[in-house]
Design goal:
The complex is a heterodimer of chains A (443) and B (805). Chain A is α/β, with parallel strands linked by helices and 443 residues long. Helices cover 35% and strands 13% of the residues of chain A. Chain B starts with a helix and ends with a helix. The chains are: A alpha/beta (443), B mainly alpha (805).
Chain lengths: 443, 805
């Protein structure tokens, strides 16, 4: 039979409608309406180069601070496209005090809201509360992926993804073409017939449950419970669409990293549509530019903004509401370190960017800046030592107030927990986000 | 009973509440009318000021009374960077958002420190014992009454109206330890990746724990044990990052011509980057990468104290590194794990005379923890503390108040908010000064004093105005002399091994490795409902580690006696509790996912076959074609690491869905490969089927006499693969028998032919891909082989098979 172009169109349309329907069905079944993503800018980004500019302290050249709605940014070519495209759906926190200039602590604090070791990062909090039983509760494409024991985080990168084809078809012997197809391994014949595999599965589940019921020590209780959950979730592995991942670029160059993060992110979006994924953790960059220049730092900003833009646009096209939380270890010192570089500074900025589908849910305000720092964006700052100190805010009015509170990562993540609908989740009972004073009221 | 207890506690908390109080003029002064000024008394008004009029929980009392009255003064000195930094009583800075919680916990912990039964927290600030801070809490004052009440509540916490959690039970009570057989089984699997031998089992069954000790002592000479030692310490040092197989995430090699000015082979005439990817370059890179962990293996093989890993005045080289440096090598040229002691002629290596310091001066360690243009070796210093002194600077002082920092005033040298940490790390960083060019990032090598002076202003290092002097103790307590500076690394190493922290560090690393899990951290949230339970678990583990440390030192700081002591400890041997849900038993017993390296070795030992790509094409794999060894197969998906800076550094200890899928793949594939091939062996050589032939059909009637060999074989499999010793009529064994019988029926009705599919059929060598002549079992007319194959898959997927027991 020869298919006409019309047939192909009909076929494609049917498939897309079916996929969309299944996606909505999966979302509804999961009770989740938004894919939360954390984009980690590794090393401590310099907010003076994008969303908290101060004149005279960085090499702005011919570029300058501008406004996109209420959002201030520096119109560097690496920065401006992202802000002009997404500022209308952006919530910016400036002047966040991370209380540290140490990478380990900064990463923990900025990604989880707590300085404590073992505290789960935000995507793990969301995943544990909304979808711990999914195939990939937190699609993990970043090396710091503390889950606090709430879920088992399983990092995926371009290397491990190469083995996924075999993991999707565990029932068949591998393809081996040495001496000709089938002469060593007959991949067309499953190891076990389907009916027996079902029986084996049932026997395995029953056995593990018996073991679990008999355990009395915490380690085995946790281990058996997690194995039962993981094994059940693993049944959906064949549904994971590997097509975005088969072309994962290799290596550690910036371009490779960006390409890897994009392709893994695309797979996560597809997985979310199918109800296989709850949240996404991804990260990029080499922002720890001590001995380098502002131009080097801008090149890193280019990477993370391109990644965030890609994810937001891709999710929008896939009908997936997405909220991207962009964080870094901390900020950078205003005074130069060495001739051109910068050091670690505890005061940081965080961007929460939604795509249109997410913004329409009105979970978070958009086009808004909360908090701020000392120093001037519009005029020169002759005394660098006084710049980029966190300014206190009234938690209710959000106006600057010397008697108010310092914004900490915990404030931000308490707000995000509320936005994600997980603030009252019992699974997060062991991981309270402590703040002094009142919560931020951001409406 | 609970209500009664709560009522008692409530009464206790509210004792001394007196209504209508009158405040004295100065409640913090002793009563001026007291006739005996030596024994001032807190009168009724004073007491009233120290106690609430309504019930407050202990935590609330701490925040509203204890902190403002007493501990807000203590924190000025007893804080990181403060004058009392390093004492046993340390508070957290008030800049920390949850400092009340953390300080509540700190005070509760410190309340247990006593002298002749009286809390030091009471004796010190009253100067009843010497206190550098003088009198801070005069007796007879409100402060004193508040302090007394705080200590009372530390012993008997108060809650107000809320449900009380049952207090944790004694951690050592109600816990059943493994039998000698179970202990043996776990020890052989963890330490040597194999089941116990028949002789070991017989000895243990006959003689109990002493036989376990003998067996464990003996197995610590096996090659697999030394692999385990390598893995334990590479997990600590993370120096495997530099293995060539990790080049894609590590991004840097070890063989650069500015690291080694004049290697004997001169890179075979190639550029350094080009030679690195040659076969010889790969092997040399891997040898250099493995050198740090080989110091532990070397000391263990020779039963020397582990202090030698730092004090060694030699390098460790295998045949490849020896060739690279052009030095004589007396070891096995075919064994890349045969490392020997070598000193390299200075002309062949950039190294100063006398500056060997074991691991500290290996290329891989220096490269993994590099200098940068601005950190001035501080990263190295931080990890030297962490790896060799059990001191994680990041846990001690992790927060700063930016508003109190003037970056122009050299805060790391002068600001108390910074010096708490920098007084510790900067001297060590300076001691390593000869291994970096001050202010430059470079490939690690030794810099002569002349080169140092050219690079930096103050005798080759950061000026004292900006940094504490190079030294071997805190601050400027013990700076290096000018004569010591060129060999500062070895002077530092010699000082480190003298400290208690070194032994503590070694014990912690070994315990974590043998217990197959990270050690417990002190719970940090006193509001956690199980805080007391988790704290009890932590304290118990800490006490066990202290006991092990004492034994370790008494045994000459040798690794093998330490490993044995861990194996015999309750932490390793706990197997069950008198009741489920006792959080205070966290950390006892097993439950961790095995490592991919362990599972890889165990499959070979238990089944006789490695899990590897079938008939690989023979490409130059640097780590071979084994599924659990290669990052681009299943090493990472099964929870492994590559240890590189941008890669995976922490092992996954809980099974994820991906892990479960890897397990299923392994079970289906290995059962296929191993079953027919085991049946084809002589009975005496079989690992899996010593009691049955493939002709014996499982009938489904387990009580039938002819089925007894099948039950015996199932008994054998449960013990061999899972360590379970089951009776022939146990429900578990019968459940497996039922599966066996039904599997045969399912195969028979599935339409499958009588011929086994490849690679299950034993007519091809799965490693070489070559046809076998003559072929082994290829037909299975009664589906018995495939039924057993199903049972093997069932057992290989088992929780007990993939986790540490």
């Amino acid at each position: 039979m020869c298919l006409t172009r019309r047939d192909l169109m009909k076929s494609a349309f049917s498939a897309s409608v079916l996929a969309a329907f299944r996606g909505r069905e999966a979302l509804a079944q999961g009770g989740q309406e938004m894919l939360w993503v954390q984009v980690m800018a590794t090393g401590g980004w310099d907010q003076l180069l994008f969303t908290d500019p101060k004149r005279g302290l960085r090499d702005y050249g011919t570029y300058q601070p501008r406004q996109a709605g209420n959002i201030t940014y520096v119109d560097f070519p690496e920065v401006a496209p992202f802000f002009t495209a997404h500022a209308s759906r952006m919530l910016v926190f400036n002047g966040i005090d991370t209380f540290t200039n140490n990478h380990d602590v900064g990463v923990r604090h900025s990604m989880s809201g707590s300085m404590l070791e073992g505290f789960p990062v935000f995507p793990a909090q969301v995943a544990a509360a909304l979808g711990a039983d999914k195939l990939l509760p937190m699609f993990t494409a970043y090396d710091y992926n503390e889950a606090g024991g709430l879920i088992a985080s399983n990092p995926i990168d371009w290397r491990s993804a190469q083995g996924f084809a075999e993991l999707k078809a565990v029932e068949r012997p591998p393809n081996v073409y040495r001496n000709g197809p089938g002469t060593v391994s007959d991949s067309s014949t499953p190891f076990l017939p389907a009916s027996l595999r079902t029986r084996l599965e049932a026997a395995h589940v029953a056995r593990t449950q018996r073991l679990s019921d008999a355990q009395t020590l915490p380690g085995h209780q946790k281990g058996t419970a997690q194995y039962i959950r993981a094994h059940a979730a693993a049944r959906r592995m064949p549904e994971l669409d590997l097509s975005p991942m088969v072309t994962l670029p290799m290596g550690v160059s910036s371009a490779s990293r960006l390409g890897q993060s994009m392709t893994l992110g695309a797979a996560a979006i597809d997985g979310f549509s199918k109800g296989l994924v709850t949240s996404l953790l991804v990260g990029l960059g080499a922002f720890d530019t001590h001995g380098e220049t502002d131009a080097d730092h801008r090149a890193q900003l280019d990477l993370v903004f391109k990644l965030a833009d890609f994810l937001l646009v891709r999710a929008e096209a896939a009908n997936v509401p997405m909220g991207v939380v962009m964080v870094s270890d901390f900020g950078r010192t205003v005074p130069r370190e060495g001739a051109t570089g910068t050091g670690h500074w505890p005061i940081a900025s965080t961007l929460v960017v939604q795509n249109a589908r997410a913004a329409s849910q009105n979970r978070l305000p958009v086009n808004r800046v909360v908090g701020g720092t000392t120093g001037e964006a519009a005029s020169n700052n002759p005394d660098p030592g006084t710049v980029l100190r966190a300014r206190k805010v009234n938690p209710t009015t959000l106006a600057f107030d010397d008697n108010g509170i310092k914004i900490t990562p915990a404030h931000v993540y308490r707000l995000l927990r509320r936005a994600a609908g997980v603030d009252a989740s019992p699974v997060l009972r062991d991981f309270p986000l402590n703040i002094e004073g009142a919560d931020l009221v951001v409406t | 009973m609970k209500r009664l207890l709560a009522a008692v506690l409530l009464t206790t908390a509210c004792t001394g509440v007196i209504g209508g109080s009158q405040q004295p003029a100065d409640p913090n002064n002793p009563n001026p009318t007291d006739p005996n000024p030596m024994t001032p008394v807190c009168d009724a008004a004073c007491q009233a000021a120290a106690h609430p009029t309504s019930c407050l929980s202990s935590r609330e009392y701490f925040e509203q009374y204890s902190w403002p009255q007493v501990f807000s003064a203590c924190v000025t000195c007893h804080v990181a960077g403060g004058q009392a930094d390093g004492t046993r009583f340390m508070l957290k800075a008030t800049s920390l958002p949850n400092h009340y919680d953390q300080n509540f916990a700190a005070v509760n912990a410190a309340s247990a420190l006593t002298s002749n039964g009286t809390a030091l927290l009471l004796l010190k600030p009253t100067m009843q014992l010497p206190h550098q801070g003088g009198v801070q809490v005069p007796p007879g004052t409100v402060k004193y009454a508040v302090l007394e009440e705080t200590l009372k509540q530390a012993a008997t916490p108060v809650t107000c109206g809320g449900p009380m959690l049952p207090p944790p039970g004694p951690v050592t009570m109600g816990v059943t330890l493994m039998s000698p057989y179970q202990t043996l089984r776990k020890a052989t699997m963890v330490l040597a990746s194999r089941p116990p031998t028949a002789a070991e089992i017989a000895a243990v069954d006959a003689n109990g724990l002493p036989a376990v000790e003998a067996a464990v002592t003996a197995l610590m000479n096996e090659a697999a044990f030394y692999d385990k030692v390598r893995e334990i310490f590479s997990d600590v040092l993370l120096t495997d990052a530099a293995l060539w197989s990790n080049r894609d995430t590590h991004g840097g090699g070890l063989l650069w011509d500015d690291t080694f000015d004049a290697p004997a082979n001169n890179f075979d005439g190639l550029a350094d980057w080009e030679w690195q990817s040659s076969m010889r370059g790969v092997k040399t890179t891997d040898a250099l990468a493995r050198e740090p962990v080989e110091f532990f293996v070397h000391a263990t093989k020779l039963d020397r104290p582990l202090t030698e890993v730092l004090t060694a005045d030699y390098r460790l080289m295998n045949v490849h590194t020896a060739r690279f440096f052009g030095v004589p090598y007396a070891g096995d040229a075919n064994d890349p794990n045969d490392f020997r002691e070598v000193k390299v002629a200075v002309s062949n290596e950039r190294r100063g005379p006398g500056d060997y310091a074991g691991i500290l001066t290996t290329t891989a360690y220096l490269q993994r923890y590099p200098n940068t243009p601005t950190n001035f070796n501080r990263k190295r210093a931080r990890f030297i503390y962490k790896h060799f002194l059990a001191y994680d600077i990041m846990k001690v002082a992790s927060r700063i108040d930016a508003s109190a920092i003037d970056l122009a005033a050299n805060p790391t040298r002068n600001n108390p908010a910074c010096t708490g940490c920098h007084a510790k790390i900067d001297p060590f960083a300076g001691a390593m000064a000869s291994w970096t060019e001050c202010g430059y990032s470079d490939h690690p090598h030794y810099f002569t004093p002349a080169e140092k002076n050219a690079a930096c202003g103050d005798r080759g290092w950061v000026p004292e105005s900006r940094s504490f002097l190079p030294g071997i103790d805190e601050g400027n307590l013990r700076p290096l002399t000018d004569a010591e500076r060129p060999r500062g690394a070895s002077v530092l190493a010699a000082a480190i091994v003298q400290r208690d922290g070194f032994a503590q560090a070694m014990v912690q690393h070994v315990a974590a490795g043998v217990l197959s899990r990270p050690l417990l951290s002190a719970p940090q949230d006193p509001m956690h409902p199980a805080y007391a339970h988790l704290d009890a678990a932590f304290e118990y583990e800490k006490a066990e580690l202290a006991r092990l440390t004492t034994a370790f030192k008494m045994n000459g700081q040798r690794l093998k006696p330490l490993v044995l002591a861990v194996v015999l400890s309750p932490l390793f041997r706990a197997v069950s509790a008198d009741a489920p849900g006792r959080a205070e038993l966290t950390g006892q017993g097993g439950g961790s996912l095995s490592t991919p390296e362990d599972l890889d070795r165990r499959l070979v030992a238990l089944l006789g076959h490695p899990w590897m790509e079938i008939a690989p094409n023979g490409t130059a794999h640097d780590v071979g074609p084994r599924y659990l060894r290669r990052a681009n197969l299943f090493k990472l998906s099964y929870g492994g690491t590559d240890q590189s800076i941008d890669g995976v550094k922490v092992r996954q200890r809980l099974p994820s869905s991906i892990t479960a899928r890897v397990v299923e793949r392994m079970a289906l594939m290995m059962s296929c490969i191993a079953t027919a091939r085991d049946f084809d062996k002589p009975v005496a050589s079989r690992l899996l089927f010593p009691h049955v032939q493939a002709s014996l059909v499982p009938s489904g009637d387990a009580t039938a006499a002819d089925q007894q060999p099948i039950l015996q074989n199932l008994q054998h499999l449960h013990e061999r693969l899972l360590g379970e010793r089951l009776a022939l009529d146990s429900p578990e064994l019968l459940a497996t028998y039922t599966l066996l019988s039904q599997a045969r029926t399912d195969f028979g009705t599935s339409g499958a032919g009588t011929r086994l599919a490849r690679p299950c059929a034993n007519d091809v060598d799965v490693i070489t891909g070559q046809a076998l002549t003559p072929a082994g079992t290829v037909n299975d007319p009664q589906f018995v082989v495939r039924a057993w194959q199903t049972v093997i898959a069932y057992l290989l997927m088992d929780y007990r098979f993939i986790t540490e027991q």
